[in-house]
Amino acid sequence: MGNWIVNHGLTSFILVVWMGINIFLFVWFYLFYDLGDQFFYTRHLLGSALAWARAPAAVLNFNCMLILLPVCRNLLSLLRGSFVCCGRSMRKQLDKNLSFHKLVAYMIALMTAVHTVAHLLNVEWYNNSRQGVYDELSTALSKLDDANGTTYLNPIRITDLIPTYFAFTTIAGLTGVIITLSLILIITSSMEVIRRSYFEVFWYTHHLFIIFFAGLVFHGAGAATKNSISLSLQTWMWVIAPMFLYVCERLIRFVRYMQTVRYRRVRSIRRPSLPSGAPRSERNLHPLRLIVMRPSKVLELQLVKSGFKMEVGQYVFLNCPAISQLEWHPFTMTSAPEEDFFSVHIRSAGDWTDKLIDIMQKLPEGAQGPKMGVDGPFGTASEDVFDYEVSMLVGAGIGVTPFASILKSIWYKFKESNPKLRTRKIYFYWLCRETHAFEWFADLLQVLEKEMDERGMGDFLTYKLYLTKWDQSHADHIMVHSDQDIDVVTGLRQKTYYGRPAWDKEFEQVRKENPTSVVGTFLCGPEALAEVLEKKCVKYSDVDPRKTKFYFNKENF
């Protein structure tokens, strides 16, 4: 339990508070409408469906206020910077912004379903009361006209109305239909399989949130009952502040988009650049290179933007108008803060990336690339890597990109003998399904190996590369060259492992070698691996503050 509290205590507390507020709002408004004397006659017409419609509406107001805040990236980066003095636990909560965004969305979906069903029953019972199906009091209440500026008790004013017609001919009904349809499209297109395989579908349908919020604000504007109007005003007050913040967020993005991003020089080579202080034979002197690797198809862009400052592990959003005016895609930067440019590695993973790679391949030598909009940089969990004495870095496939930035920065810090470097040991694990994926990172590891040996710090960096998929011809090739001093796959002194890491063994070894350290475990990879590592961090952390503790951090964007 103590280990669980170390890694999840604050997160769980925040979720309990959030859920508690939801429950409180639901119960409070349910009792308000179910027991309040001012709704006595409305309850006679509708029964408990009145309270079942209003209570979810109150919860919806609260969560619609929250839903935009986790995606205000500039706001989060500002808060993250201000929490530097507040400890890593608080900053870790900001790194879970997308998880909270999804959780709030699920609550909105649930409350929308309850709210919609209750209102469908309300319309049916209103219509029946107007037609005299129920008792005489219901019929008499339904015939009451407006008086003294109040609204109809029963909004249905004719006896031969089709309930569906009512839903599509009133502002409240029509906006309710639009809001619900928008929400269904947003949620269904956000499923993992669609987001990964058809990102453009996810991207465009997600922008239906504009219609959703516009409909939400006007949903009660045409309400026919007094309590509906009051709840409409509450909706406006709940969402106006986050809507303003998000508009500011988009304005900042537009300003950044208009800023010039320069390509220095473009040419095709096979491997990416090394730190600029590396020997001439080991690096490329040009501050920008475009790399297209076959068959792994990884593109490296090195870009320059006036006033751009970054930290290790941060990411940017890129927009290429030649491909799409509206699409922005996130990419972790692979450059170090000490360099005078920033770089990203882009793997072929969909229509947008394929088109970008195709455009770059067709550029003549030395030509400028297409206009590129850059929004960022934005903070991630990897920024905190140097706050730990010991760090475990785990990357899967292209998920190694934030750690390229970290390792390059370490190289510069050693080169400059930076006294502020607190980290004294790094364990690096990279899992790949194919040998070609190792190509672009091997040079950097070779330079780091050499640098550490020259400084007598060979133990500072321990790295293990794992190939998780191979065929028989590859296995035969390995056997033929097994007696060589360097690895046949990567050219490094450290031989490649085949299969997946035995994480219990790795964590036990780290704990044994660092018996009194705080270990930061950083992952950029799939959720399945995240679940495994998170459990290992809990399992191998010691409650005794004098002994080893593991803190889990995951990239989310």
What does this structure look like?
InterPro entries: Cyt_b245_heavy_chain, FAD-bd_8, FAD-bd_FR_type, Fe3_Rdtase_TM_dom, Fe_red_NAD-bd_6, FNR_nucleotide-bd, RBOH/FRE, Riboflavin_synthase-like_b-brl. Residues 261-384 form the FAD-binding FR-type domain. Keywords: Heme, Iron, Membrane, Metal-binding, Oxidoreductase, Transmembrane, Transmembrane helix. This protein is α/β, with parallel strands linked by helices and 557 residues long. The protein has three domains: 9-223 and 232-256, no CATH class; 287-378, Beta Barrel (Elongation Factor Tu (Ef-tu), domain 3); 381-554, 3-Layer(aba) Sandwich (Rossmann fold), CATH 3.40.50. The chain has 19 helices and 14 strands. Strands 12-11-10-9-13-14 form a six-stranded parallel sheet, with helices on both faces. Strands 1, 2, 3, 4 and 7 form a five-stranded mixed sheet that branches. The protein has a three-stranded antiparallel sheet with strand order 6-5-8. Helix 17 (472-480) links the parallel strand 11 (461-467) and strand 12 (497-498). Helix 6 (97-130) packs antiparallel against helix 9 (171-188). The longest helix is centred in the first third of the chain and has 34 residues, at 2-35. The relative contact order is 0.09. The model is unreliable at 266-295 (pLDDT under 50).
